[in-house]
Amino acid sequence: VATVTRYDDNEAVIRDLAQYSSIKSLGSRVDAVMATLDAERRAILREELDFFGLYLPGVDPPDHTRVRGLAHKAFTPHRIADMEPTIRRMVDELLDRAEATESVDLMEALCFTLPVLVIGSLLGAHPDDTADLRRWSEAEANFSQSIANVDQIAASRREFRGYIRRLIAERRHARHTDLLAALLDAEEDGQRLKSIELEAMFAILLFAGHETTTNLIGHAVRALLLHRAQWELLLRDRSVVSNAVEEALRWDTSSQMIHRVASVTTELRGVTIPAGYSVRLVLGAANRDPERYPDPDRFDVTRTDLRHLGFGIGPHYCLGQALARLEVRVALEALLERHPDLALAGEPRYRDNMQLRGLETLPVRLRG
Ligand code: HEM
User: Fold this and answer.
1) Which residue has the least CA distance to atom 32 on ligand 1?
2) Is 0.90 topped by the overall pTM?
């Protein structure tokens, strides 16, 4: 594996679709796991990996261009902006519940629940299904960490793909105006998403938009409470909140790394990368590159020129970035308004995951 840490090198590799492929190469990892399985389980794993291969971040052009183009038709800025009052209501309801006690774990009370409620509502899921959506999302995260747990992922996928098919069938029979209905309607040059692509799109929107946003809300609150003067600054001037969201993502990057595979033998900073080699792009390091940012380790919500790689860049640029930015801004605005004295009430604990950096617990005191 080649590891890339500089900002400019990360950007160059991510933009270079001709030399670097996004198709996930699990190579020797798959062979090693396959060798431990019986024939029936090998077939199941193959099928689950094929479905995984349809998730947009792991698709190359021309399929990527076609599917992404269709997704854009449904995932419009207008549709996202319209979500603001709904998101605010969801945050208020979660905080109303949390307020019964003086100290809470903000991860549990707000950060884990809000993104799955939001994406669930956007996709047309019923609020009662949130626990299922969260469970399926966890199985997916486990699978991306370790593909050995074949039975768990197969059972989870059976359930949630059945669930998606039911939602799709409902939309084929009655008029809906949600994102899923729009995805069904989306058409370009006479092409629509194939059924299986639609299922994979639903899945990736659910999974990609869930844990990463959870982590960013947690990181933003932790960073602001550790740097009290900056929390105070936001209390005085809400126009800085959007910039604080960007700085939180730069300073404590939720997707610490993404991966590519060299399609041809190539060179980077004088180092040869043979064809077929995996390339690990450490976005968290790029976002603190001293060649790119002055004093990169300082958390500063008033930073200018805050372009960062937290959402990637180029053709695979995060499809849900506008939604994620909106959710985190609304959550921070609600906390500032309702709990100006918010303070850390213990040591936050990080989860043991190198790729998806996120807090497990964030104990806070809501009142001064
Ligand atoms: C703070 C929250 C989020 C972070 C840090 C984040 C991060 C990223 C990154 C780094 C990529 C680029 C992957 C690559 O180039 O290989 C990406 C792609 C993607 N994200 Fe996000 N994301 C977030 C929220 C969301 C949300 C809310 C959604 C959906 C509702 C979403 C859906 C996607 C999808 C579908 C892609 C693949 C796009 C493509 O390959 O064309 N993300 N995200």
Assistant:
1) 320
2) yes
